[in-house]
Structures are given as structure tokens and as C-alpha cells.
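Lecture 7 notes: from sequence to structure.
We start with the chain below.
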Amino acid sequence: MSQGKVYCGRRGPSGRCSVLVLPSNAKGYNLPHIVRHSPDGFEWGYGGSGPADLALSLLTDATSGGVAEVRYQQFKADIVANLDRNHWELTGGEISQWLTLHRSMTPPREQAKAAEGGAT
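Predicted C-alpha cells for the same chain:
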């Protein structure tokens, strides 16, 4: 888990969204877009395809294993859909706290798949 990271989302003047990852001890980088639902890129502040890709990409960057595949739609609904439309920051610690809460609610079968790196 990368608790020392800070994720910064910004909407530019043209409306284009970007997410910068700032590790505590390394140079920042753009969050890689895992294209699952939205070929047009990230979005946030509502529950759609761009926010789903952002949720999946955030959880994949912040964790190891298949937990992102199991939890990204709920993370979208709980966190990404509620982010400020113009700019936001989310820490690795906040993601970790959310995951800790939701891991306890994951059925054992899904926990096993996540540990193996599989999707449900």
C-alpha cells in the first residue's frame, strides 16, 4: 500500500482532466489510465465511465494484487463520484482507510480472488 502518495486531480481550462501522483520520496508522474470503460480519459464528480476508470486506476496504483478489480465500482460510488469537479487531493492513507473498511465487508470468496489477483 502506498500511503505516502498524494493523488492530485485537476481540470484544465479546456475541461481536460489530469491526475498527478506525488510519491513521498520520488518524482511525480501522471496516473496511468487503465482503459476499461472510458477511452476518453478520467473524470470525477459523478458516477460514470470516466470516474470508473479513475477509480480502477487509483486503486491499481495504490495497491498490489487484485483488490482494485474487486472494489473499484464501490470506490467510484463512495469516493470518486464525490470529488470536487475542478480539483482534489486524495492521499494513499485515505485510500488505505477506505480499503480497510471495505475489506471487512468483502465476502470470503471475493477476498480469495482478490488475493490471487483475479477479477469477479
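Points to note: DSSP finds four helices and four strands in the chain. The mean pLDDT is 86.
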